[in-house]
């Protein structure tokens, strides 16, 4: 079951914050977050396992609400380098395949 | 980031051609993946290999034939493709697939155009 990401696109000014959501109708084991810049490979950001764990990566952090089957990616004080498409990938059980959302296109302008 | 390499980076082929995509990972991983990325669509898993054994075939047409001779190399053999097969084909690797959740490292992809 493909997760649903929102919003589909967001435009920010440098220094602004953003939140990207990833929701599933199925119970989840884990949520992965990746960022892909135009013409480049997706790059791993972080994994969240069930248990409501919150993780951080520089000024990018994420949470996983197990009850709601939703993960949110928080981008704080955005930088130009944050521009790209952010994908969540969800895993329903340990060792099962990752199913990716359609992506959220983030543009950070000066 | 050169942990996962793919060749060629671009490929144009006719519908009657036979070609192969190559992927190599230098990360010591045991799992490798092929994904298809089409415009305006999510990443679509095609095949998964874990310790050289195919563990997933996501209902991929037989005109796509994967080969994994060892844990470091993965091929995708293509024959009699259709124009709708034009897409970016991404290879990825991870530590393994079983017993947990492992981050995947992607290659730069092969941009395939079928004419």
Number of distinct beta strands of chain B: 11
Q: What is Rg of chain B? A: 13 Å
How far do the termini of chain A sit from each other? 37 Å
Sketch the topology of chain A as an H/E string, one letter per element: EEEEEEEEEEE
Strand count, sense and barrel status of the largest sheet of chain A are: 6 strands, mixed
State the end-to-end distance of chain B.
31 Å
Strand and helix order of chain B: EEEEEEEEEEE
Shape of chain B: globular
Give the strand content of chain A.
over 45%
Total helices of chain B: the number is: 0
Which class best fits the helix and strand makeup of chain B?
mainly beta
Number of strands of chain A: 11
Task: Report low-confidence residues of chain B grouped into runs of 5 or more.
Answer: none
SSE class of chain A: mainly beta
Low-confidence segments of chain A, ≥5 residues, pLDDT <50? none
Average residue pLDDT of chain B: 93
Beta content of chain B comes to over 45%
